[in-house]
């Protein structure tokens, strides 16, 4: 019998992984044994992506080759561009990435598992290109060139989005956010991707599954909701009153608490420092002050802490990224983690097919339609 604490499989061990640990065995959050604090302080997203995909940090020559390989895979096939052009202007960017991933799988299919690493790189490299091509085409009618000479994903995306290279420290801010979002053990989207992989489906299908799962507001989308919350108030005092009113009305405040973490999210302090720096630099300090006041109210009233999504919202806003693109940034990053989990699942595969406890009606006799009362 599934107890109340296990509803939604909370607390149920569904498998083993050597990719990350979330608050277990004396660790905080680690990727392949490396703390998220060390990785976000010292590594690049490309180093972290290599670590997740290969199990070890890259040597210098490997990192250079990996970064160059990603650069070479940023282009989009013409047929994919045509699909991006016919998608509605009103489509959610997450739907654009879901469709783009599926379409690329039709054009460049995975015909054997030996292609999985190249496909993972292809998706990591081309997701920013897909999103920005669709965005600019529907905003201004421009068919942009999606290949840039930026040497990392963060710089490439900001360059495509704004039409010019971004300052190095701005690229680094996004780079850190991508590191923080890259992996998180058996979260909903990762587990869904592993289920798809367990059926011996292709990598594109597994990643599409992950995107579809992340699309739901109970998994992804909290950063978008957090930005909408912060922008709703003119100052910190108004934010306090507004949040108190929402709490009194039993409304959920997105960006706080976590299904796994009970005391704090180790990623939050890292992104909060970037939020303060960028808000001050861009004369958006009131947004940071509002965020801090909301954090204080939530701690005082509900004993809840901010998770990664809360302060990531103001970081992305300061970088000039539209709010509707916040969760797609999650996709750019988590593709590395999803792919690593698919590789791991394939390496020791068994179909994931849990049982369910039936709580429906007992055996019943079928009644012909003309005899039913």
Care to give the gist of this entry?
The chain is mainly alpha-helical and 373 residues long. It has helices at residues 36-42, 45-54, 60-72, 78-86, 93-107, 116-140, 153-162, 168-181, 188-198, 203-214, 222-231, 236-248, 268-281, 285-302, 308-318, 326-347; strands spanning 20-22, 29-31, 34-35.
Report on this structure.
The protein is built from 16 helices and 3 strands. The chain has 373 residues and is mostly helical. It has 2 domains: 20-216 and 323-347, Citrate Synthase, domain 1, CATH 1.10.580; 222-318, Orthogonal Bundle (Cytochrome p450-Terp, domain 2). A 3-stranded antiparallel beta sheet has the order 1-2-3. It starts with 19 loop residues before the first strand and ends in a 26-residue tail after the last helix. Residues 1-5 have low confidence and may be disordered.
Topology of this protein?
Layout: E1 20-22, E2 29-31, E3 34-35, H1 36-42, H2 45-54, H3 60-72, H4 78-86, H5 93-107, H6 116-140, H7 153-162, H8 168-181, H9 188-198, H10 203-214, H11 222-231, H12 236-248, H13 268-281, H14 285-302, H15 308-318, H16 326-347
Antiparallel strand pairs: 1-2, 2-3
Helix pairs in contact: 1-8, 2-16, 3-6, 4-5, 4-6, 5-6, 5-10, 6-7, 6-16, 7-8, 8-13, 8-15, 8-16, 9-10, 9-16, 10-16, 11-15, 12-14, 13-14, 13-15
| Count of separate DSSP helical elements | 16
Rg value: 22 Å
The chain-level mean pLDDT equals 94
Number of strand segments: 3
Quickly name the level 1 CATH class of the largest domain: Mainly Alpha
* Inertia-based shape: globular
List keywords for this structure.
globular, 373 residues, 3 strands, 57% helix, 2 domains, mainly alpha, Cytochrome p450-Terp, domain 2, Citrate Synthase, domain 1, three-stranded antiparallel β-sheet, disordered N terminus, single chain
């Amino acid at each position: 019998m599934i107890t109340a604490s296990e509803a939604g499989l909370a607390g149920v061990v569904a498998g083993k992984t050597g990719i990350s640990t979330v608050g277990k065995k004396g660790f905080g959050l680690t990727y392949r044994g490396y703390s998220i604090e060390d990785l976000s302080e010292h590594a690049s997203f490309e180093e972290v992506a290599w670590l997740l995909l290969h199990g070890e940090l890259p040597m210098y020559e490997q990192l250079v080759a990996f970064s160059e390989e990603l650069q070479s895979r940023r282009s989009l096939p013409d047929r994919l561009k045509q699909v991006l052009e016919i998608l509605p202007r009103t489509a959610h960017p997450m739907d654009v990435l879901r469709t783009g991933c599926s379409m690329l799988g039709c054009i460049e299919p995975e015909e054997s598992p030996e292609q999985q690493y190249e496909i993972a790189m292809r998706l990591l490299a081309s997701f920013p290109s897909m999103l920005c091509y669709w965005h600019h085409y529907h905003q201004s009618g421009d068919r942009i060139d999606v290949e840039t000479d930026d040497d990392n994903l963060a710089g490439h995306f900001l360059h495509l989005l704004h039409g010019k290279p971004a300052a190095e420290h701005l690229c680094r801010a996004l780079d850190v956010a991508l590191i923080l979002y890259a992996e998180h053990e058996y979260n909903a989207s990762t587990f869904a991707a592993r289920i798809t992989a367990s059926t011996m489906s292709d990598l594109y299908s597994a990643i599409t599954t992950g995107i579809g799962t992340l699309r739901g507001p109970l998994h992804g989308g909290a950063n978008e909701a957090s930005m909408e919350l912060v922008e709703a108030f003119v100052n910190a005092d108004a934010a306090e009153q507004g949040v108190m009113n929402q709490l009194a009305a039993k409304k959920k405040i997105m960006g706080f608490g976590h299904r796994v973490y009970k005391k704090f999210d180790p990623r939050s302090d890292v992104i909060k420092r970037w939020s303060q720096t960028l808000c001050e630099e861009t004369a958006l300090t009131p947004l940071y002050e509002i965020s801090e006041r909301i954090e204080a109210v939530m701690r005082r009233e509900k004993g809840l802490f901010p998770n990664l999504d809360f302060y990531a919202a103001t970081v992305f806003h300061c970088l000039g990224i539209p709010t509707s693109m916040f969760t797609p940034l999650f996709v750019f990053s988590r593709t590395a983690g999803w792919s690593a989990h698919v590789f791991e699942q394939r390496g020791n595969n068994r179909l994931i097919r849990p049982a369910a406890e039936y709580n429906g009606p007992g055996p019943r006799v079928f009644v012909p339609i003309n005899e039913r009362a």
